[in-house]
Predict the 3D structure of the following.
Amino acid sequence: MTKAITPRTKLIAITHVTNVNGDLFPAKEICRVAREHGVLCHLDGAQSFGLLDVDLSDIKPDFYSGSGHKWPCGPKEVGVLFVSKSMTTKLWASTISAGSGPIGISKVIEGYGQRDEPAIMAFAEALRFQTTIGRKAIENRSRDLAQNLMEGLSKIDSVKILTHRDRARSVATVKIQHSMNGQKLTAALFEKDKLAFQGGGNSLRLSPHFFNTHEEIDRTVAAITRYAAGGLGTA
């Protein structure tokens, strides 16, 4: 990565966890390299916020953003933006409004008028609910389910796991490649087995969360094993 940094580089924007296959990037090390080169770093936490026990004081990004409707299980069109203290005085609003936010940096960047307050309140409630369970408990549970899922799917000859098997390098999203018709497989899993996944082509993305059960993982593996043996037609 250091070879790609030039005197013109102003910001490194990276994803914390890729949505494609769930691989976990070394965010702390990347942020450190950015600081050493005098470059800002934005960490996209769309796939880590609400899933991982994220410690921003340890990672030290300049910016961190997260979506409310993904792993936090909140509504769409809400989210969070973390700005490091060193950057709060260096930001300015891209739009001008008659009003401003109530406290802190919101006085500078939140003056945009009416907002969807019910969605924001629902988002806050979703975060409070997760807090009662515990961030580390949610992360451990989701990781355990994903590891069990990969272990079961690895026994199917026609299935290739595209997610890194090392627990330290992946999280809860599991992506597989198969030789079946992707549309038919996704439809069959949903209609016959009541299992919902994102599929397309000859791949399938499975994302167990803390509310899922080991029984559901076993049912998923059994269903994909059954369809792989019975044949749904090739992709």
Remarks:
- The mean pLDDT is 91.
- The longest strand covers residues 11-15.
- The domain at 135-230 is CATH 3.90.1150.10 (Aspartate Aminotransferase, domain 1).
